[in-house]
Amino acid sequence: xxxxxxxxxxxxxxxxxxxxxxxxxxxxxxxxxxxxxxxxxxxxxxxxxxxxxxxxxxxxxxxxxxxxxxxxxxxxxxxxxxxxxxxxxxxxxxxxxxxxxxxxxxxxxxxxxxxxxxxxxxxxxxxxxxxxxxxxxxxxxxxxxxxxxxxxxxxxxxxxxxxxxxxxxxxxxxxxxxxxxxxxxxxxxxxxxxxxxxxxxxxxxxxxxxxxxxxxxxxxxxxxxxxxxxxxxxxxxxxxxxxxxxxxxxxxxxxxxxxxxxxxxxxxx
Amino acid sequence: xxxxxxxxxxxxxxxxxxxxxxxxxxxxxxxxxxxxxxxxxxxxxxxxxxxxxxxxxxxxxxxxxxxxxxxxxxxxxxxxxxxxxxxxxxxxxxxxxxxxxxxxxxxxxxxxxxxxxxxxxxxxxxxxxxxxxxxxxxxxxxxxxxxxxxxxxxxxxxxxxxxxxxxxxxxxxxxxxxxxxxxxxxxxxxxxxxxxxxxxxxxxxxxxxxxxxxxxxxxxxxxxxxxxxxxxxxxxxxxxxxxxxxxxxxxxxxxxxxxxxxxxxxxxxxxxxxxxxxxxxxxxxxxxxxxxxxxx
Lengths: 269, 296
Known about the structure:
The complex is a heterodimer. Helices cover 72% and strands 0% of the residues of chain A. By secondary structure, chain A is mainly alpha-helical. The two termini of chain A are 23 Å apart. Chain B folds into 2 domains: 4-221, Rossmann fold; 225-295, 2-Layer Sandwich (Alpha-Beta Plaits), CATH 3.30.70. Chain B has 10 helices and 14 strands. Chain B starts with a strand and ends with a helix. Classes of the chains: A mainly alpha, B alpha/beta. Chain A binds chain B through residues 2, 4, 8, 12, 105-110, 112-117, 120, 264, 266-269, and chain B through 15, 52-56, 73-75, 77-78, 80, 82, 84, 86, 88-92, 101-102, 104-106, 145.
């Protein structure tokens, strides 16, 4: 890894990271601020939710109304959208552009003529992606934790919260690896932001549809969201070894392949 | 010639079925200013990008300072400066920030002083945002970044695009001065005139192949002028009967155009006794030289 390149890339992405942190944190704060009102009016809300088709609720991640009564359940349902989906979009947009940007901005000629190996360039950019995703997760999870502490009506499992946060981080990292991999396959120097965002949403949609519709439940396994367990209020909630192996294994595989492809890639500027 | 600083052996690059360069062989000695000329699309930039390991060869190999351009790319680049044809730097930075960023990749102690000297020489305002710079000023940034670490070899790809004549002159003077200190210069251009001004040897590339490699003095001896004469009367055999005239084209009854490789005084002397309405003598384009010497 090259420190100079790493620091330059961190500065280059700092504003974007800050905006994503603020937006997701605000969404979490806004959502959690509703929790007290929600608890005070739970009978009315329960009545309202009973009118909504079960499928539509599951689409939002609500499988059982009782899930929402605990502060952790309430948080985890909303966490799916704000931290898992938005965090994954952040990760994939960052990673899919971090190498490709040098090509379509035509700055690659400067970068590739510095005394650096392709491996050093790749590792520096990978470190930027990892640190950015970690910082986003750390700040937003911390915001979530503080919010829960402020609005909770009873104790909640910190262990379950940490596991949920770990799943979110792993999912975001996996999408970071997917974005990086796709960008190394692209031969034309063009941004792939729209495609990357679409990919996250499609995977989210596949997972949701597979949960709602019994007949297509198997297709859910195509989506990384399927392996991010958000059932945080389940007493048996744990960091499943196979799910962990799935996230780490696929992320490492894609990153390794990306590094190999990038090391032999013709860079067009 | 001293030990080659650039040694290219049978180097080829194909983009799928499309030709980049084919079986290029070239040796450039330490301390040379070497010209690499050819029309657009001839393979100049492809050759340079292969040397700088931005792209990978389909066949053959290249060595710089005795090291393989792929395997030893990091070590090579620590001793090479490069000016790309497109002067695109990071638009979010200001000039000084960008140049300081460039310096930090090298183990140099006087980098800031070098930036200051070079920016003064090129009258470049270091505080300006790169995004706001004109093409000429971006080119100056590009020149400075290539020299801040005092490289042993400087590779230039169309370096004068966008520079005004005054700055071109400053730039050429700087190149000559750096060359005297020992820097080898590989100068790629499609402008024959600027290559002739600087270089001692030149390779001409066309269609991905090197078609001529010779001393610039020999090329000068062969140098053609493109002449267009509008006579006061009809063109006849006597009008065009002078040694050194080739490739005559009769454009109308009284206008002819031709390539002239003889003594210009003989031509003007010959024309002095004739009725001439208009006379134009100009440098032929590189393509015209290619057509004249190589196609036929």
